[in-house]
């Protein structure tokens, strides 16, 4: 619940059943998911100890910039 940039791959429906998704949209807000799952725990539809599969969804631009800078400094072998 406290993790940032984590997007669920296990989706809990309103009735408590589980479905799986393989992607997430770039405009999703991870805070909304944390509030949604907190509400499901509060309502008793899922346990606080339930496992939810998540994917790390950080922006890719910093990693691309780092790779570019390394290639400029070291060059291509």
Note down, in words, how this protein is organized.
The structure is a single chain. This protein has two helices and four strands. The model has no long low-confidence stretch (mean pLDDT 82). Helices cover 36% and strands 16% of the residues. It has one domain (6-74). It has helices spanning 30-43, 61-74; strands at residues 6-8, 10-12, 18-20, 54-56. The termini are far apart.
What topology does this entry show?
Elements: E1 6-8, E2 10-12, E3 18-20, H1 30-43, E4 54-56, H2 61-74
Antiparallel strand pairs: 1-4, 2-3
Features:
alpha+beta, single chain, two-stranded antiparallel ribbon
Question: Care to give the gist of this entry?
Answer:
With 77 residues, the protein is α+β, with helices and mostly antiparallel strands.
Task: Summarize the amount of helix as a percent range.
Answer: 25-40%
Portion in strands: 15-25%
How many whole angstroms does the radius of gyration measure? Answer: 18 Å
How many β-strand stretches? Answer: 4
Low-pLDDT sequence parts: none
Give a short account of the largest sheet.
Answer: 2 strands, antiparallel
Instruction: Give the mean pLDDT.
Output: 82
Q: In terms of structural class, how would the helical and strand content be classed?
A: alpha+beta
SSE succession: EEEHEH
The count of domains is 1
**How do the strands line up in the largest sheet?**
1-4
Number of helices: 2
| General shape | elongated
Distance between the termini: 44 Å
């Amino acid at each position: 619940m406290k993790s940032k940039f984590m997007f669920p791959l296990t989706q809990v429906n309103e009735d408590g059943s589980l479905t799986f998704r393989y992607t997430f949209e770039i405009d999703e807000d991870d805070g909304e998911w944390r509030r949604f799952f907190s509400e499901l725990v509060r309502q008793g539809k899922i346990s606080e100890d339930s496992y939810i599969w998540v994917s790390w969804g950080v922006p890719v631009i910093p990693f691309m910039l780092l790779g570019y800078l390394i290639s400029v400094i070291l060059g291509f072998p």
